[in-house]
Structure formats: C-alpha cells, structure tokens
C-alpha cells in the first residue's frame, strides 16, 4: 500500500515548478523601495549575490514565464490582455536579468535611468 502523502513524479515536478515560479516572481529582495539605497553604489557582496543567486533565478523565471505565457495565449488573446501578460511574464523577468546593473535590486520601473 502506497502512503497517501506521496506525490507522483508529475505532481512533484508541478510542485517544484510552482514553488520556483512563486519564489522567482515574488518581491523578496527589496521589501520596500529605499531611495537612499538605490542611489548608492552596490558593494561586492551585493554584486556576488546578484551574480550567483538572482541572475540565475531571473533566467529560470524567464523560461517559466515564457512557457506560462504561451500556455495562457488561448485565454489572453480573446480578452485582449496578451500584451499585459507578455509584460508581466516575459518582459519583467528579462529586464530583471539583463537590463539591471550588477548588484542593484531596484526594478527598472522604479529607476528607468539604470535600465537603459
């Protein structure tokens, strides 16, 4: 008899992907926007954490967001919300990963001059 708490492989994969997506899209690094912190130069440890943790999570969020965007197209096209879905699922993780300067965890919407 198999215990009821065990998940199948597909269920475990879904659980891991949903957890990773919520972690990648969640606003965990800057809990609030701090103007003083945004204007100072990042130190070496912030750059290290950004390069080793945040950028790979951004790449993963881009991949999951792209797949989610394609899967949501049958629902977003009839409602004319494909553009906002693309911005939230694909463009935001892409800007987070490739447009931000290293060590700056301020979003491109808050400080567009950093994300040129």
Helix-strand blueprint:
Layout: H1 9-25, H2 35-39, H3 44-76, H4 82-99
Helix pairs in contact: 1-3, 3-4
Q: Would you kindly provide a written description of the structure presented here, covering whatever features stand out?
A:
- By secondary structure, the protein is mainly alpha-helical.
- It has a domain of 76 residues.
- The protein contains 4 helices and no strands.
- Helix 3 runs antiparallel to helix 4.
- The chain is flat and about 45 Å long.
- About 4% of the residues have low confidence.
Stretches with pLDDT under 50, minimum 5 residues: 27-31
**Separation of the first and last Cα atoms:** 59 Å
* Tally of alpha and pi helices: 4
Global morphology: flat
In short:
This protein has helices at residues 9-25, 35-39, 44-76, 82-99. By secondary structure, the chain is an all-alpha fold.
Offer a few descriptive terms.
single chain; 116 residues; mainly alpha
């Amino acid at each position: 008899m198999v215990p009821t708490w065990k998940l199948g492989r597909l269920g475990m994969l879904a659980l891991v992907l949903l957890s990773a997506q919520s972690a990648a899209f969640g606003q965990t690094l800057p809990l609030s926007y701090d103007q003083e912190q945004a204007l100072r130069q990042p130190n070496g440890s912030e750059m290290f954490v950004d390069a080793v943790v945040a950028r790979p999570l951004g790449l993963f969020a881009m991949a999951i967001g792209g797949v989610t965007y394609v899967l949501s197209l049958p629902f977003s096209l009839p409602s004319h919300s494909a553009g906002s879905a693309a911005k939230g699922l694909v463009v935001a993780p892409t800007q987070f990963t490739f447009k931000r300067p290293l060590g700056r965890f301020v979003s491109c919407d808050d400080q567009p001059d950093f994300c040129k």
